[in-house]
Amino acid sequence: MHLRNLPAALLSFLLALGTMERSQAQEPQYSFHQSFSLFGEYSNTSSRIILGAAQNRRFAALGLGYSRRLLHSRHVDWYYAPEVLPLVFLEDPVATDTFGFSDLQPVTQLSPTSSPCRSEYVSIPPDPHPGPPVFTFRRTCGIRWTYAGGISPLGQRLNFRPGKRLQPFLMDNAGFLVSPRDIPVDFSSRFNFTFEFGGGLEFFRTPRHSWSLSYRIHHLSNGFIGANNPGVDNQILRLIYSLGR
Prior knowledge:
By secondary structure, the chain is mainly beta. Helices cover 9% and strands 56% of the residues.
């Protein structure tokens, strides 16, 4: 190559490089460096899944999440993903027991139950008749909602197929909830630890916006800091909207 052609060749190379960089910059990259999210979740009941013994508990929540990418590779993105849960609602089955002798004012007690509540009625003697006072016991069933709030600072998420619009992921998290009264039963605790794990799918509507649907197993218990610790296991569905960059 003649020296007089070198400036023209160099200029052509720089123009081609700039065009390539612009093309790459315009290509959508579906992988957040960091993001903020809003989510809602719901579980219709609880059952014995891991450690929980308290059954028939509903769980609903609204929360905020943050994620920051710790590792990016061709096959997986690893995120630190803590959460704040300012609005959590837990429904407990409640038994109302009324008992006493027929010649005295009956006593009424209300308390949530670990097992499903069943209505009952007992009379002793079974057929009331003139004579000694009759003892009766009646149980009626209802529900009670309790508000709680908390944080889950130990969240992690693995997104597979980074760069694709549809990405499966796995997650886990742990934290605590605080409520104005003992949950899930009396004489347990107002402070409860939580942990959860699961997975789902994240769909990137644009490189900066995504929707996710996840399924997770959620456990709540007080770690034996209360007199009672039945624990609650819920299967939760969560819908998430994320805004990131």
